[in-house]
Amino acid sequence: MFPESSFTRAHASGQRLLDAAALRVHRWRVRTVCSGILVGLWWSTATGLMAQPAAATAAPSEAVVQAERPGPEVAASALAAVAKLGEEVVQGRYLAALERMNPQWKERTAARMGGMKALETQLAGVAEEMVRQGVRMLSFKPQGEPRVLEVSPGTSRGGNLVYTKWLVLVPTVSRVRLLQQSEGQAARQVTIESTGYQVAIADKGAADWTFIDGAGLTAADLRGLFGTLPAELALPPVLKRIIP
After folding, report:
1. How far apart are CA 186 and CA 204, in angstroms?
2. pTM of structure
């Protein structure tokens, strides 16, 4: 084992590397972390807005909403949709992040950024900026057990109060390679792994999933959109680490 002083220095060096990488992201993110797939580092930089308190959406009255037990096909459909979106982004089709962003979240994000055109303009420059900084998205995939919830109460054809949408929390893992430059040293390639999640939302009976990225997202943000979510909603972890 390393002596304690050596281990401490090694740990501090690794943390400085992560901090430096994060600083490079923040310099061109203009403090935005929209919903997208560069989880916590790059996609969220391209398409997200740093989490801000969302205006609360009123929950329905005390009327009982009929719950439905989700079949395994719901989670499977959400997982497949997240995997497909990840493949598109890895292939460089970054506009997919904007196209598949949840409409309610997109409207709020665009309003904070000065309109939809401002949001689209920022996203359009992401690919060029990633190339300039030597960034390459290596992989993005669902990994872990999804959690299926019901949201958006509405009236069924029979007049009953029911939930009309599925909301699925899909854990993900992505890897990004970038050029790390330190003063007085040659640039070297660094791979950063990000653990995060996508919030997948679709109308019941449909497979047209839209997404909110978990980077910077809080339970309060989600409850601002979907007021019937549990008050103590536990979200998947968001972490990052350097791959040796």
Report:
1. 53
2. 0.76
